Structures are given as structure tokens and as C-alpha cells.
Amino acid sequence: MYYIVNMHRTSLSTSNRSCCHESYQIEIPNALKQAVVSDKPVKGLTHNFYRYPARFSPEFAREAILAFTKSKDCVIDPFVGGGTTIVESLALGRRAIGIDINSLAYFTSLVKTTPLSKQDICSIAEWAEKVMELDPRDTTANIRYQEDVFKNIPPNIAWFLLMATDMASNLRFARQRRFAKCAIIRTGQLMLDCQSSIPSLTKVKATFIQLLDNMVEGINDFVELVQSNNIPKYKISSMRQLFLGSSDSSIVDKIQDLAPIKPSLVLTSPPYPNIHVLYNKWQILGRRETTAHYSLASIKDGHGPSYYTMGSRSQRGLEYYFQNIFQVFLNLRKLITSNAIVVQLVAFPDEDSVKAQYLSMMDMAGYELLNFPNANVSETVSRTVPNRRWYTYYHEKQLSSRELLMIHRVKFDGSPNMVRNSW
Predict the structure, then answer these.
(1) Are the C-beta atoms of residues 87 and 47 closer than 8 Å to each other?
(2) What b/e sequence results for 138-148 when a residue is b if at least 16 CB atoms lie within 10 Å of its CB, and e otherwise?
(3) How far apart are CA 101 and CA 271, in angstroms?
(4) What per-residue confidence (pLDDT) applies to 59?
(5) Contact call for residues 284 and 158 (beta carbons, < 8 A)
(6) How far is residue 71 from each of residues 63, 65, 90, measured CA to CA in Å?
(7) Nearest to residue 328, comparing CAs of 261, 258, 245, 392?
(8) Does position 386 have pLDDT exceeding 60, yes or no?
(9) Measured between alpha carbons, how far is 270 from 22 in angstroms, rounded to an integer?
(10) 398: exposed, middle or buried (Cβ count in 10 Å: 0-12, 13-18, 19+)
């Protein structure tokens, strides 16, 4: 654990009075710098329950939490995505709050952080045995499905995934049903999403049972690690709060009513301005898109891609993006402590003008970019992220696969700067 924010006060004279101004410098621990640029594969605990697009690494989340919080502090992620911040916060003995507008993000974050009992695991194992016995030649097992949703998925695989889902719906408890359905959509994702060929049903079944075993092992490892940080198993769920929706006034009010302590760290990777990420779709054999995984998880989608990226890939979309993200960070001010730190990984299609707009937005929302002793570390600590399906409006300046580390704190005067402009 680090406390690395050093405050330096300097006196500024004015015509009427002298006032005290605080400037802040921080030294980023080497472990955090290395975590930003690390290319280690994502693994361990429950992180591979689902491969959520544009997620940051558990290693980065872990080092940021260690650097800026202490035990029992609270961490908030307003763009929770795959739940990496929540998992790592709990694993380190912190409280956690996650918010996202994507029902899939809410679903996977919930599954990743919900402990299972021995009886839960036995029930899921019995369900899995029946799933492995499924045979598409058994005409009595056929079920109807929405052809428009599953049209790009091979019929035999769609049948298997749907039958497994239908059987999972008979499990007794909601946590069992969610866990089982998460295993189903993870299987479908691994077998179909961005693959160059369609696997056999035999391979799909083998992958399913192996993934399920890995998931059970992962949730047990997660619980064990949380317990090692003095959080009993029965308290794990109460240590995290997950909210489906945008960070608007209604969500903020709920959090204020329910959260026992204010978050001292905002750790997130927001949607990137003017960069299109397929948060809600799989791609089958190229660009054949599907949202079948929402139906398999028994959750709703119903939104276009720009809904999840907070704006389309156009100049008007960029303006709409900044209106939205400004409001998110402005609302966060009501939830976090007066000296909270904001750590972000963000990619920009244009690291000059668009990044400048982003920093201006943060300033107007009431946050200041921290100064670093050795040059502009916030500009140089970055990582190039391979194998991402990102599309950007600024084709000639496409640097969008490079994420930049930015660290802010709440302004000392405690108020947003609304003088110059308004988003």
C-alpha cells in the first residue's frame, strides 16, 4: 500500500489579500507504471468469466488500488464494464461501487463477485452433466428460438446454447442460474466471437465443461482471497454495490442512501471519444453481428452501438459524448470524498485536440490533473493494446489503440469551474 500524494502549499498575493493555494505532486510507483504497459494475459480469480470489450488488466487495477487506498476504503467505477475494478477491490479488502448502462456489464460483474455455496456448486455440476448429454438428434428436445437474434449462429450450436440456457432456468437460486448462464455465454463467445471458423458441437461441449470447471475454481479462489483480507464470505456481497444505469441523479441518490462510506478512489476506463467499440455484439465469421448472448443471459439489450459509446463517430457525436461524460464526472462529485483521486485509462483518436477537450471537461467538472515531479508522466505512461475492434472517425490520426494514464484529484476549492463554458 502506498500513500504517494504529496501536498505543497505556496502563498499567492493578490491586490486585496494573500491566499493559500495548494499544488499537488505525486510519484507513481514503479509497480503501477509497469502494470499499465504490461502485456500479460488476463487470468486468475473470476476475470475470465467473460471477455468484456476494452477492459483494463487486473494487474493495473490492483496496483492503482494499492497505490491510492487503504484497507476498507471504497473504490467506485462509473463505467464498470467487465467488473475488473470491483473484483480487485474486494480481493484487496476494499468496498466497491460499480455503475454501467450495459445490462451485460451489470450481469457479468454480479456473477464475478457473488460467492457460491457447496450446494450451489453441486447443483450446477448436476445441471452441467445433463447439458453434456444433450443430443441434437433427439427431436423431443427441440425448442423454438428467435431466428432474427440467432440467425448468424450455426443452428446446431444455437440449439445447444439455447437448450443449456433453458435447463439453467430450472436451477433453484438466482445466483446458480446466473453462474450457469454466464458459463454458456462465455462458451459461445470463445467459440464464435471473432473466430475464423465454426467449431464442431463436440468441441463446443468440451470447451463448455472445461470453462465451467475453471469458473468454479476461479470463484473459490476469489472468495478465499477476499477472506484472507478479513472479509467473511457471507459479507462479500454486501461489500459491493452494483447499479444498472447511467450516473444520473437517480443513481447518485441511491448510492448516497446506501453507501456506508464515500469512495476515495475513482478507477475507470470510460468509453473513448469518437472511438467505436462493439460493447454489445459478437462478430461471427467476419462482420456478421449478433446480440444472442443477451438472450442467453436472459437480459435485455435493445440499444444501438452509439448508446454504449456515448456518441456516434461524428462531430455531433463527439459533442454529445462530452455532454454525457461531463455530467457523469460532475455527478460523481456528490459521491466521492473531497480529496478523492481519479485514475483513468483513456484512448483518443487525436491526442492533440480531443485529449485537450477531455482535460478541459475534467477541469470544468471540478478535477485537476496532478503534476508529476519528472515531466508530464501522465502523457508518457501509456500502453498499446493489441487485438481490439476499435473504429474511429479520425482515420488519418488513428492512435486509438493506445491508452493513456491520467490521474486527477478533486479541486482544492471544492467546486466545478463553470465560468468559461458549459457542456
Answers:
(1) yes
(2) eeeeeeebeee
(3) 11
(4) 95
(5) no
(6) 14, 10, 10
(7) 245
(8) no
(9) 28
(10) middle
**Shortest CA distance to 246 belongs to which of 327, 320, 340?**
327
Helix ranges restricted to H, 280-365: 292-296, 305-309, 315-332, 353-365
- The helix-helix angle for 84-91 and 103-112 (nearest 10°) equals 20
Residue where the block lists cell 475454481: 217
pLDDT value at position 351?
72
- Give the chain's domains with CATH numbers: 31-103+240-287+309-410 (3.40.50.150)
Nine-digit cell string for 333: 462529485
d(CA 329, CA 362) in angstroms, rounded, equals 7
Nearest-Å Rg of the Cα atoms of the chain is 23
Q: 299-302 — which CB contacts under 8 Å span 24+ positions?
A: 299/103, 299/104, 299/106, 299/107, 300/103, 301/103, 301/104
**In the chain, what are the helix, strand and coil shares in percent, each to the nearest 5?**
45, 15, 40
What stretches of 3-82 show up as alpha helix (H) in DSSP?
A: 30-37, 58-68
Taking the C-alpha atoms of residue 185 and residue 294, their distance in angstroms, rounded to an integer, is 8
Confidence of residue 366 (pLDDT cuts 50, 70, 90): very high
Report residue 132's pLDDT band, with 50, 70 and 90 as the boundaries.
very high
Q: In sequence order, what are the residues at sequence separation of 6 or more whose Cβ sits closer than 8 angstroms to the Cβ of residue 275?
A: 309, 313, 347, 348, 349, 390, 391, 392, 400
**pLDDT tens sequence across 310-319:** 988 889 999 9
Mean pLDDT rounded to a whole number for the chain:
85
- Residue with the three cell numbers 425448442: 143
The C-alpha angle 221, 95, 263, rounded to 5 degrees, equals 145
